[in-house]
Amino acid sequence: MRIGIPVHVANREASPGLKKGGALNIVLHSVEVVAPVDDIPESITIDLTGMDFHDSVHVSSLRLPEGCRPLSGTADLTVVTIVPPTVMVEEAPAADAAAAPAAGVAATPAAGAAPAAQAGKGAAAPAAAKPAAKK
C-alpha cells in the first residue's frame, strides 16, 4: 500500500545547531512509502542529536520498518535540515543623528557647552573676546 507517514523530530535540546540559535527546517512533513497493509508505521521519528548548521537528513538515510520502502524517486529528497540564524543589520540611530548636521541642519548646542566643543562639529570656533580699548 502507498501511504504518507508523518515525520516527527526528537532531541531538539541535543542539537548544537539549535543551541546556537539555528532553526529546524522541516522540508517534508510526511514521507511517501510503500508498506504492507498489516504493518504500516504510525510515524517516522528523526533524532536531532549532534546535528549542527547545514546538517540534513534525507529520505534515503531514514530507518524504515522491515517491509517498508520509500516511494521510487524520493530517496534524494531532504526531510529536515538545521539552518543558521538569519541576522538583519539595523541602521544605528547615531548614524541618523550624524547625518542631520551634514545635511545643513544646524544643531543646537547644549546649554553651557564650551565653544571648543562646537569646533569639532564643522562650525568655526569663535575668536576670543578682546578687551575694549580705553580712551
Task: Outline the structure in words.
By secondary structure, the chain is of the alpha+beta class. The chain contains three helices and seven strands. The strands form two sheets. It has a four-stranded mixed β-sheet with strand order 4-1-3-6, with no helix packed on it. A three-stranded antiparallel β-sheet has the order 2-7-5, with no helix packed on it. It is elongated and about 115 Å long. The protein starts with a strand and ends in a 16-residue tail after the last helix. 10% of the residues are buried.
Q: What gross morphology would you assign? A: elongated
Mean pLDDT: 80
| Largest sheet: spatial strand order | 4-1-3-6
What structural category do the secondary elements indicate?
Answer: alpha+beta
- Terminal CA distance: 116 Å
The share of residues in extended strands comes to 15-25%
Instruction: Report the uncertain regions.
Output: 117-123
- How many beta-strand segments? 7
The Rg value, from CA coordinates, equals: 33 Å
What is the succession of H and E elements? EHEEEEEEHH
Helical proportion, percent range: 10-25%
Helix tally equals: 3
Structure summarized in a few sentences:
The protein has 135 residues and is an alpha+beta fold. It has helices spanning 16-19, 93-102, 115-119; strands at 2-10, 23-26, 30-34, 44-47, 56-58, 69-70, 78-83.
Task: Give the SSE map.
Layout: E1 2-10, H1 16-19, E2 23-26, E3 30-34, E4 44-47, E5 56-58, E6 69-70, E7 78-83, H2 93-102, H3 115-119
Parallel strand pairs: 1-4
Antiparallel strand pairs: 1-3, 2-7, 3-6, 5-7
Give a quick set of tags describing it:
24% strand; four-stranded mixed beta sheet; 7 strands; 135 residues
